[in-house]
Write a structure and sequence with these properties.
The chain has helices spanning 28-31, 35-44, 46-55, 67-83, 101-113, 146-154, 188-207, 219-229, 249-263, 279-285, 295-303, and strands at residues 6-9, 22-26, 91-97, 118-123, 138-143, 159-162, 174-178, 239-245, 269-272, 289-292, 308-310. With 315 residues, the protein is of the alpha/beta class. An eleven-stranded mixed sheet has the order 1-4-3-2-5-6-11-10-7-8-9, sandwiched between helices. 40% of the residues lie in helices and 17% in strands. It is globular, with a radius of gyration of 20 Å. Helix 6 links the parallel strand 5 and strand 6. The chain contains eleven helices and eleven strands.
């Protein structure tokens, strides 16, 4: 598939090798707060939206939900290059937008204003812009549009739906929290739970304890993140990863741990919540992003100011 016609290379940023880098694509509404502009687009149409963006092209957009996450991955790049200036295994950020190039000037100016290390801006007029994700080697796609996320997941790209919220910028150390079932792992146990209840799910896990779980939609991203994390000692790593799952440690934790071990995926900390709310522990961790397939968990995270991304299992 050819690249979008309107791809703007950011010459202020050293371009990465997409075959080696961990490429993350974000939409404009994921990285910036464009809710007022989006409302204008829905109510007044594309032409009025474009006029507004052109008139305000030198006015930086406020940060959005994924903004601090992108800043944190830049920090990781900085630390990696300090250790090895020739390293190619870096984060590479591109913006994928349904804006026209004319209205996209404000997006580019906003990124430059904040010093964001975004290598490319892709302005795509096609209704389904996710068709270009694989041609760019994207390993994670963050969008504020559910259809986009579902299309990306169906194309085999790790993706999650970002909800706009005010977030407090955590430390520069990149902190990423994953849920387990239907996010890192497949949803096989969730299906047993829905059909046979908790007792059936616990029994299933005991029988299957020695069998690694299938991969979930974010496994590929997590594995590449884990590979980057291994470049550092645990004490010096600029990346910290967490598993926060509704599983109980006593009855259903062993298989999760054995699966991670089989994959070779090291997680810094794991919390088996046994169905308890995740909000309090997330408030303590203060991650840059939290991935979960349960909307109630996303809401709990938002309530404590944690930037969250929903991985829908029902596209």
């Amino acid at each position: 598939m050819a690249e979008p016609e309107s791809t703007v290379i950011n010459t202020d940023v050293k371009q990465k090798d997409p075959s080696k880098a961990l490429v993350i694509a974000v939409t404009t509404r994921a990285i910036f707060d464009l809710e007022e502009e989006h409302k204008l687009y829905l109510e007044k149409g594309k032409e009025e939206y474009t006029r507004h963006q052109q008139a305000n092209q030198d006015k930086p957009l406020p940060p959005g939900t994924a903004f601090a996450f992108i800043q944190a991955v830049q920090y990781v790049n900085k630390k990696i290059l300090e250790s090895n200036p020739a390293e190619k295994d870096l984060f590479d950020i591109l913006v994928l937008s349904n804006n026209s190039p004319e209205s996209g000037v404000r997006i580019i100016n906003s990124a430059k204003h904040y010093g964001l290390e975004i290598s490319k801006f892709c302005f795509v007029s096609d209704e389904d812009s996710t068709q270009y994700l694989k041609s760019h080697g994207v390993k994670l796609f963050l969008s504020a549009d559910r259809t986009d996320v579902c299309n990306a997941l169906q194309r085999g790209v790790s993706a999650a739906l970002v909800f706009q919220q005010e977030v407090q910028a955590p430390s520069t150390l990149l902190r990423v929290v994953f849920d387990g079932d239907a996010v890192l792992f497949s949803d096989e146990t969730d299906q047993v739970f829905r059909e046979q209840g908790l007792e059936g799910a616990v029994q299933y896990e005991r029988v299957m304890e020695a069998v690694p779980m299938g991969e979930g939609p974010l496994k590929a991203f997590a594995m590449h993140l884990g590979k980057m994390r291994k470049k550092f000692s645990q004490e010096e790593s600029p990346i910290r990863t967490y598993l926060v799952t509704a599983r109980s440690g006593r009855d259903m934790g062993i298989r999760a741990i054995k699966t991670l071990r089989e994959w070779g995926l090291a997680i810094d900390e794991a919390f088996f919540m046994d169905g308890a709310p995740k909000g309090p522990i997330l408030a303590q961790i203060q991650p840059h992003i939290f991935f979960d397939d349960g909307l109630h968990n996303i809401q709990g995270a938002q309530n404590v100011g944690v930037p969250s991304a929903w991985v829908p299992s029902c596209c």
